[in-house]
Amino acid sequence: MANEIRLSDLAARIGAKLAGDDAVVTGIAPIESAGPGQVTFLANPKYARFARDSAASGIIVREPVAGGRAAFLISENPYYAFVCAVEVFHPPTRPEPGISPAASIHPGARVGRDVTVAPFVAIGDGASIGDRTVLFPGVVVGKGSSVGDDCRLYPHVTLYDGVRVGSRVILHAGCVIGSDGFGFAPSGSEYRKFPQIGTVEIEDDVEIGANTTIDRAALGVTRIGRGTKLDNLVQVGHNVEIGRDTVIAAQTGISGSCRVGSRVMMGGQVGLAGHLEVEDGIMLGAKSGVAGTLRASEGRIWSGIPAIPHQAWLRVSALLPKLPELFRRVRRLEEGSKTKEDE
User: Which of 41, 91, 165, 214 has the fewest CB atoms in 10 Å of its CB?
Assistant: First the structure.
């Protein structure tokens, strides 16, 4: 059977320790539905009941669950270990190297070794493509742009002229990198476009979700730091700088000239006004509206509109349903006070 492996071998490959029978397993599954021959994981103790009732052959856990029938693969980080297990059973694949005759490659472009270029790809003059990179159908790499080694650009990714992409970068379908920033100078009767003459730099090991847009700088560079991950439908404005290993969820919008630190986490639909800073290590709850610079010294977790420290936002949220009654009580007190004054 394909992908057949003993739990002891799997444990060694994912950095876990086996406790229990050394069964043969052939796949992975969610904890609610995993059966014999499958491996699952438990990262949140509140789901321990599923582990006790599970028919899975192996469960990746931080510590054994009393009453469980499965063997346990013990790891300090069960979720990370499970990701490694998924890769064991479903190793990454890549299309065969080769250049489609239906691709358009300018004679002045440079294409590295073992590159895959699918039909209807367009590579402009002076562009360079690194070794083993895969360009799926409809990708456009503009004039003077560069893409590093071992990258994947999925269908209809567009790199405008002069964009620089590092190595091991993944750009999902429909990404637009290097489009003009939103800059217009009012004259009283019209808006004159500010020429966007900067560029975008995406450092190594970045992953960017489908239909995300990253604007080129008006002057200078819009930069996405090494290891950062952007979800689908994220908007990054011109001259934004995002640090290393930051994660940003879907539908977040970052206005121009913001500075976002390293190891920042943003939930879905966060909005940042322009020209502000979010310091290293800060976490932003979903739908947070950031109107000014956030300092880690003032709080690591922020929520709400406008964003305030999370514990304060929880207190405010608890009071919101009580506001109508509080208003009625204040109004009655005011009316009573006026009556006494009239007397």
Answer: 91
